[in-house]
């Protein structure tokens, strides 16, 4: 864990269609009418956003819908993150949190979203048991090509959709090659998970090791194979992709 402040990129995942449960929970809230809702995901790896296949929420986490600094946009994240956003001047009334509604993560599952830069124009919200309410925004965007946690969790969901209460088609998105690495090829996380025989999100010890390997290899040895910066080393592409997302209004800097 970093001791100093951690700088994340807050990725804005636009809600295209609520799940049935979310539709019900959020009906009749006049403040939401005519506004776009964005689930805000905190990531350390903005250069991987081309490979988003879904987004994860903690089923037992309570989320809120909050006023943002744009009157047409509402942000969905934890209350804790909303306070941080407000403090950083990203809320409607500076340093003041305006909450329009609350919703359980469980009710968000199956919501259809647009994830910026992803090769898949529409992806779904899925459950991840290990999302921490105490870190980031409580929303984790999923890049199974480069994140062992995301890959292992998706494998669980694909194997047991009924157990996890999802429709199989919500998880039916193949990992996309976005970064080539000398040691693990262009699907780093699936390759490492296979090598370490990681079968589930519950393999915590091996996953912690896999995460470390994938992160180091991707950052120091990786080359982009997709997007405007294809051919560039990840270290060079990362700040450029981050800036492009921020300039297009699809992301912002989020510190905590
Ligand atoms: B990363 P750190 Cl491709 N609970 O984004 C659990 N995990 C969370 C979280 C939460 N509340 N909030 C953010 N995260 C994840 C991309 C990614 C990430 C890739 C590879 C590695 C990786 C796509 N998922 O993280 O504890 C988010 O996943 C491994 C370090 O602050 C975020 O970046 O160091 C990362 O963990 C933040 O972790």
Automatic annotation (TrEMBL):
Family: Belongs to the class-I aminoacyl-tRNA synthetase family.
Domain of life: Eukaryota
Organism: Bifiguratus adelaidae
Residues of the full protein shown: 290 to 545 of 1107
Protein known as: leucine--tRNA ligase
Compartment(s) of residence: Cytoplasm
